Amino acid sequence: MQFSILGLQNPIPTPAVGFPPSIGNLSSGVSLRHRMNWSSPALRTAAVMASPGFEGHRTLMEFVGKGNAEVGDELALLVSHIQYACKRIAALVASPFRSELIAKAMADVGAGPSLSGRDAPKPLDVVANEIILSSVHSSGKAAVMASEEDDAPIWISDDGPFVVVTDPLDGSRNIDASIPTGTIFGIYNRLPELDHLPMDEKAQLNSLQCGNKLVASGYVLYSSATILCISFGSGTHAFTLDHQTGEFVLTHPCIQIPRRGQIYSVNDARYFDWPEGLRQYIDTVRQGKGQFPKKYSARYICSLVADFHRTLIYGGLAMNPRDHLRLVYEANPLSFLVENAGGKGSDGKHRVLSIQPVKLHQRLPLFLGSLEDINELESYDSVQQKFNPGYEV
Ligand SMILES: O=P(O)(O)OC[C@H]1O[C@](O)(COP(=O)(O)O)[C@@H](O)[C@@H]1O
Fold it and tell me: Which atom belonging to ligand 1 lies closest to the Cα atom of 307?
């Protein structure tokens, strides 16, 4: 028997006859499904959650809560505030009233873009930044937050044990076409040896930690589903937002990126500006003449979190060979996630997590993906695009 919601057949798994087992007997031989009011979302969810196969689903808060020695109470609290901020951003990017909400929020914070061109902060980025900052602040667990949207890191509290780095809303220039966007974040320990320094200095130096010092990193993808993917240093796990309960539910525990993929992801309109090595690599794999004898396919959304998420799940490479993406806010957190899933993050020559940042907004060529694909790419002489004409789109 199938049931339908909004005309879709079986949008959630149909429970077995006699389901749910604990209350099935009440129906004296008649399947309870026939007697339940399936138009009630709460009932449907409760029934499905109680069905075999759903018992193991843990929420993010259960995952980071007591019993997860790797996380600890203070980090769990910080993560709970960040995930709440991301739910607010998810609601904002999907809202039909987005423009009005943003206009109001911009008026409230008194913000006005001071830059022009591609790098100018867009109102949505500014609002997303405010949302993250306010949650990080109210967690009471952050000493400093450095954001791609701010010129300098913001010192929050001398007592905060953690440092947060973030790109609050990547890909937002595509938002009007409803293309997926994402939030990226990384968390470091505050460095107590810097406590004696003036505020600006310790804010800066705490935020310039090498990626191999990350204690956690994650992203939230705002797409057909809202997915929060996180690592605390042993495994990468993804949680899907259940809009009925408002909880992130563990759907992809211990993600392992395939050792090889068959997809490369790059803006290949830039082909003629690429160095010879990168052109050769792409020409080789798209013809199926690389180490893996299959013809690779191209996928490019032009939204880093979405391109990265697909790569994590299907394997292959997501890359931007020019000095465009930022080491602190994007490359390090995503490299931490891909390494913890068995993949690799590279600037074409070096492991990203071993690069010592010297500037907060430092940019680099970025290659993320399956171990064997990135190794093969690195074997080509020159894959970093040094010539970087200011592209308009
Ligand atoms: O123009 P390119 O080189 O394809 O760069 C696209 C990349 O830039 C981004 O839009 C980020 O750039 P911004 O920080 O300027 O928004 C990514 O989401 C995307 O992967």
Answer: 20
- Please report, for the domain that includes residue 311, its CATH number: 3.40.190.80
Three-state SS annotation for the chain: CCCEECCEECCCCCCCCCCCHHHHHHHCCCCHHHCCCCCCHHHHHHHHHHCCCCCCCCEHHHHHCCCCCCCCHHHHHHHHHHHHHHHHHHHHHHCCCHHHHHHHHHHHHCCCCCCCCCCCCCHHHHHHHHHHHHHHHHHCCEEEEEECCCCCCEECCCCCCEEEEEEEEECHHHHHHCCCEEEEEEEEECCHHHCCCCHHHHHHHHHCCCHHHCCEEEEEEECCCEEEEEECCCCEEEEEEECCCCEEEEEECCCCCCCCCCEEECCHHHHHHCCHHHHHHHHHHHCCCCCCCCCCEECCCCCHHHHHHHHHHHCCEEEEEEEEEEHHHHHHHHHHHHHCCCCEEECCCCEHHHCCCCCCCCEEEEEEECHHHHHHHHCCCCCCECCCCCCCC
Active-site residue, 170 included:
yes
Assign residue 174 the CATH number of its domain: 3.30.540.10
The pTM of this model reads 0.85
Judge whether 372 counts as a catalytic residue: no
User: What is the value of ipTM here, to two decimals?
Assistant: 0.94
- Residue-range definition of the domain harbouring residue 26: 4-50
| Ligand 1 centroid from CA 171, angstroms | 6
Is residue 384 lining ligand 1, measured as CB closer than 6 Å?
Answer: no
pLDDT tens, position by position, 40-61: 444 544 554 555 445 568 999 9
